[in-house]
Amino acid sequence: MHHSPYSSSCSAPTDAQVGVIGLGTMGSMALWHLAREGIEAIGWEQFRPGHNKGAFSGEARQFRATYLEPEVDPVMPHAVGAYRELEEESGTSLLRITGGLTIGQPSSETIRTLSTRMGQAGHPPRLLSSSETARRFPKHRLRGQEVAIWNEEAGMVRPEHAVVAALSAARSSGAQIVPYSAVTTVEAAGNRVAVSTADQTWYVEKVIITAGAWSWELLPNLVPDSYLGRLLVTWFPVRGRADFTEETFPPFLREVEGHRIYGFPSHWDGTVRIGFAGPRQRLRTPAEFDWLHEPASEIAEISRLVEQCFGDEVDPTPIRTSNFYDAYTPDGQPVLGPVDAQQRIIVGSGFSGRGFKMAPVIGRLLVELASGRRHSGHKAWDPLRFIR
Ligand SMILES: Cc1cc2nc3c(=O)[nH]c(=O)nc-3n(C[C@H](O)[C@H](O)[C@H](O)COP(=O)(O)OP(=O)(O)OC[C@H]3O[C@@H](n4cnc5c(N)ncnc54)[C@H](O)[C@@H]3O)c2cc1C
C-alpha cells in the first residue's frame, strides 16, 4: 500500500487510486482511460477477462446514429472518434461503418419514428425504391408495401474484440487486472473505499461500478423497478453461395408483423446472425441466468420470420443460439454518476440494450467523474433520479 498524490485529502493508504468493478463493456473502457491518463487503476472481473457471459458477447453490435434511440444522443457525436482512438492504440479493427438498412411497412412504428426523427434532425431519410433495394441488397425479400431507409452513418462493432483491446491497452499502460474475483461488498470508509471479494479486501480512493446485469446486486436500492433483460441471439446457415457480405447484407433492423428483428453478416463462415431486437424476457436476479436456455416458442417464431424475410437464401433452422443479459432501467436511460455524498462511488450501468455503441465515450465520462473533472453525467442519466 502507498500514500497517493491523487487526492490531496487522502491520508489512509490505498492499493490504487481508482478501482473498477466489472471489466465488461464499460469497465474495460474505463480501465483503459484511467491507465492512459496515468491514474493508478485496478480492475476486478468475476470471470476471465473477455469471457462469454457478458452484455458484450454474441459477435456483433449495431452502431447507429441515434434517431431510433434518442437516449444515446448526448454522446453519439463522439463515438466514432473514441472507437478510432482505441483502434489506433490497440492495433485492432473494431468499428466498421458499412451503412445500415431499416425496413418496414410505411405505417410501422419503426419507419414512422425514424422518418420523423431524421426529418426533425435535418437529415430527411433516404428511402430506397424496391428495385434499388432488390438490386443492392438482394438477400432481403421486401413484402407488400415495405420500404427501406438507407443510413450511411450506421455500422457494426466487434464487441468481444473491443473489450479485450481495451483491457490489453489498459494493462500495457500499467493497470492491474484481477480476474476470477467477484466483488461482494463496496463500502465508503472515511476517505477511501473498501472493495471486498470472498477472500480479500482492497482500498481505493474512488471506485467505478460497471457490473452490468449484476450491478443491482451491489446497489440493491438504486433503481426500483429495474430488471434484467434476456436477449436471444441466433445464427442461421446460409444457402447457396455464401455471399452475405457487408455490401450485400449490411446491418439491418426490420419491423415485421410487429416484431423488430436485426442482423449482420457473420464472421462464422456460412452463417448469418439474425435475431430479435430487444429483450424476450424480464428477470429479477442473475440467479435466473441461463445462457443456453432455448424456449421452443421463441425459436419457432424467429425461424418463421427469417423464412418470410429471406426466402430461400437462409435456412430457417438456427444452428447456434445463446442468451445474453443486460441491465434495464424503467425509463431506458442509463445510470451514470456518483451515488454517495463524498462522490467516491461512481456507477455506470443500466444501459438497457443500447450501450455498446457508446462504450468508449462512457469509459471516458466515468474517468472524468472519478477524477473529479466532472461532477455529474448527463441530467437524464442521474443515478439518483429514481430514489429522490
Ligand atoms: C444480445 C445483445 C445485443 C445487443 N445489441 C446492441 C447493439 O446492437 N447496439 C448497442 O449499442 N448495444 C447493444 N446491446 C447493449 C450493450 O451491449 C450493453 O448495453 C452493454 O454491453 C452493457 O455493458 P455493461 O458494461 O453494462 O455490462 P457487461 O458488458 O456485461 O459488463 C459487466 C461486467 O461486470 C462483471 N461483473 C459483474 N458483477 C461483478 C462483480 N461483483 N465482481 C466482478 N465483476 C463483476 C461481469 O462479469 C461483466 O464482465 C446489446 C446487448 C445484448 C445483450
From TrEMBL:
Domain of life: Bacteria
Pfam families named among the record's database cross-references: DAO
Coiled coil: none
The keyword Oxidoreductase is annotated on this UniProt entry: yes
Cofactor(s) the record lists: FAD
Entries under InterPro entries matching the protein: FAD-dep_OxRdtase, FAD/NAD-bd_sf, MTOX
Keywords: FAD, Flavoprotein, Oxidoreductase
GO molecular function: flavin adenine dinucleotide binding; sarcosine oxidase activity
Positions of the FAD dependent oxidoreductase domain: 18-369
Keyword Ribonucleoprotein assigned: no
PANTHER family hit by this protein: FAD DEPENDENT OXIDOREDUCTASE DOMAIN-CONTAINING PROTEIN, PEROXISOMAL SARCOSINE OXIDASE
Name of this chain's protein: FAD-dependent oxidoreductase
